[in-house]
Design a protein that fits this description.
Elements lengths: L2 H13 L10 H11 L3 H33 L4 H49 L3 H6 L2 H43 L1 H9 L1 H36 L2 H10 L2 H53 L5 H22 L1 H19 L21 E9 L3 H4 L2 H4 L11 E10 L4 E6 L5 H7 L8 E6 L2 E2 L5 H7 E5 L9 H6 L7 H10 L3 H6 L17 H15 L3 E5 L7 H15 L3 E5 L11 E6 L2 E6 L1 H7 L2 H11 L9
Parallel strand pairs: 3-8, 3-9, 6-7, 7-8
Antiparallel strand pairs: 1-2, 1-4, 4-5, 9-10
Length: about 625
């Protein structure tokens, strides 16, 4: 590596240095070592190859000096040829070992990325819904990308640099001192002139880089939000495109100005470093030539010293930045471990058992619940706040009792925010109750295995989520091994078969981000098809027809009737006409069940249900077919 390229690496490291300067944590080092253990054999080989490669980089200048000496002393041609062949063989060996070194480095680094990413990804999947409702998705993805890669550099770059640079430095110093200690001392005196500019310029460029990164981040957020289907629609309906364009152009122009300034700073730096490099070589040739003419030094030694100079300055400059590189890697590791250390609130017990076979009942026994605090489920760095609020949410459910017998349909109605969806979320254990118990088939959900809960419960929400994937992939997510015939069967049962068959690509049609290529009713029916394919024994419908037009609602309602046949169902409804046939209707207000009974009995009781019913139909709402 040349002096200029090494200085650039020094400046680049300073530019990307973290502000964090905490001392090494032994616990962090121990965890890093645990991730390194599976790769220990390759790390050992990598270290040995790095040592051999470093030794060969020093051998070449010494042999070049011997060639010059052989020529000046009129040695036999055979000697020069042998030395030249040795230099060539070392070059070939160095190239070969370099490839092996980079292969090992890539395998170690990419293997570490794989281990870290899968660990974070698997851990994040265990987090409760409350975690995702608070966390910025971009910040979380950054941990999986930027921080994981930053941590990987500790093995692929820093480890390689430290080993090879230390060996190269020691061997180069020994060789230079053996040739001329006076010239070695003089060249070392120029080291600060070589390194300090990189530090100063790096700090200046770091400030520019941070400012540019902030502007780029803001532009990225603006583009992500505006370029989604929902965001683009909002801008077209209520936004001001001209104002959006001016705001974006202003930030883009600032990034351009920073880019120009950065380019000029770097160019001045490189010109200065080229000058320093030339002065260093001039010093070696000047002093070396003086000593050679005085008969105190061989001409070959002068050439060897000049070549060894690059082998001396390069590792010294790189090692001067090792602490910064290590600290950067440590910070990245700590940010990754910060996510891994966040304990999920919902955990499967070691002695958990599967739900019983056959039809299942659903029971709430004196259940009270408050949403967890931010401190329990999130990280300040993932929310972009200084500190997390340690306060838990207010109690939203108060001593709720209900029971749905196997095969029965229990409907929940009430005002917006009364706690109906919260009740539904406790059944598949998206949250855990604070007191009381939720039982399925007589078993407390906290004592059931996660897999058996997932297999037994199917849920359709008012905003059924679809991935940017094919119709087949979205439906078969419930049961990936399902055949195309099974997928078609549930699509027809969800009143969606004819539509999908009419699409150009059929089951291979991509539905778009969040399913925006489909209408609201079509999206809902697709989520119902997914639920039908899963064949759950307990079905939860959380206002599945709340935002649909009459035509779409009728189709979805017919699909839901098919979905509920023979299953235990908890149905949350805004339109009371859709739940008149439910076995039991529960009226929820302020987190409490205030009324219970059948449709006719609740109307006769002249309570809250009757009030809601009269309010809806006094507005002339259309009465669709009941469940």
């Amino acid at each position: 590596m040349s002096m200029e390229s090494t200085a650039w690496h020094s400046m680049y490291t300073a530019m990307h240095a973290q502000n964090d300067r905490r001392p090494f944590s032994r616990a962090t080092l121990a965890r890093i070592a645990a991730f390194a253990v599976p790769h220990r054999r390759r790390i050992v080989w990598f270290t040995l190859v790095s040592v051999l490669t470093a030794a060969m980089t020093v051998a070449t200048p010494l042999l070049a000096g011997r060639v010059i000496d052989a020529i000046t002393h009129n040695a036999e041609v055979r000697v020069v040829v042998v030395l030249a062949v040795l230099i060539g063989l070392i070059a070939l060996a160095e190239a070969g070992f370099g490839l092996i070194q980079h292969w090992l480095s890539a395998n170690i680094g990419e293997g570490l990325i794989l281990d870290l990413r899968t660990s974070v990804y698997d851990h994040v999947q265990t987090m409760p819904v409350a975690f995702f409702s608070r966390t910025r998705t971009g910040a979380l993805v950054s941990r999986l990308n930027n921080d994981v890669i930053g941590a990987q550099r500790a093995f692929s770059d820093t480890l390689s640099g430290v080993v090879s640079n230390v060996v190269t430095l020691v061997l180069a110093l020994i060789a230079m001192v053996s040739l001329s200690w006076q010239i070695t001392v003089m060249t070392l005196l120029l080291l600060p002139v070589f390194v300090l500019p990189a530090r100063r310029m790096g700090a200046r460029l770091a400030r520019l880089r941070r400012e540019a990164a902030n502007h780029n981040s803001t532009m990225s957020t603006q583009m992500t939000e505006r370029f989604s289907a929902a965001g683009a629609t909002l801008i077209k309906l209520f936004g001001h495109p001209e104002r959006e364009s001016v705001e974006f152009a202003s930030r883009a122009a600032r990034v351009r100005d920073i880019g120009v300034r950065s380019a000029m700073v770097q160019e001045v730096f490189f010109i200065a470093l080229t000058l320093v490099s030339a002065l260093a070589l001039a010093l070696v040739y000047g002093l070396g030539g003086f000593f050679a003419l005085a008969g105190e030094l061989e001409a070959g030694a002068v050439v060897a010293l000049a070549l060894l100079l690059t082998r001396l300055y390069a590792p010294l400059t790189a090692l001067a930045n090792t602490r910064v590189e290590v600290m950067n890697a440590m910070v990245s590791f700590e940010r990754v471990f910060e996510v891994l250390d966040l304990r999920p609130l919902i955990r499967q017990k070691p002695d958990a058992v599967a739900l019983p076979d056959g039809p299942l009942s659903v029971e709430f026994d004196d259940v009270s619940f408050a949403y967890p605090s931010a401190e329990q489920v999130s990280l300040a760095s993932l929310e972009e706040v200084a500190t997390l609020d340690p306060r838990a949410g207010a109690t939203v459910l108060h001593q709720v009792n209900l029971r749905a017998e196997p095969g029965q349909t229990v409907a929940l109605v009430g005002s917006t925010g009364a706690g109906k969806s919260t009740i539904a979320s406790l059944i598949p254990r998206l949250f855990d109750v604070d007191s009381g118990a939720v039982r399925i088939g007589g078993l407390d959900v906290r004592d059931a295995t996660t897999d058996s809960l997932r297999d037994a419960i199917g849920m359709v929400t008012q905003d059924g989520h679809l991935f940017h994937d094919t119709v087949r992939a979205n439906v078969a997510r419930a049961r990936p091994e399902a055949s195309d015939d099974e997928v078609w069967a549930v699509l027809h049962r969800a009143r969606l078969g004819e539509l999908v068959a009419s699409l150009p690509d059929g089951l291979d049609t991509v539905v778009g981000e969040r399913g925006y290529r489909l209408s609201g009713g079509e999206r809902q029916r697709l989520t119902i098809a997914r639920m039908l394919l899963a064949q759950p024994r307990v079905v939860i419908l959380d206002e599945a027809t709340a935002h649909l037009d009459s035509t779409s609602e009728a189709a979805v309602q017919a699909a839901l009737t098919e979905a509920l046949a023979g299953r235990t169902a908890i149905v949350i409804a805004h339109r009371l006409s859709t739940i008149q046939a439910a076995d039991t209707i529960l009226v929820v207000e302020d987190g409490r069940i205030v009324e219970s009974g059948g449709h006719a009995a609740l109307l006769v009781a002249e309570g809250r249900y009757a009030e809601l019913y009269r309010t809806q139909f006094s507005r002339g709402e259309e009465v669709p077919a009941a469940l």
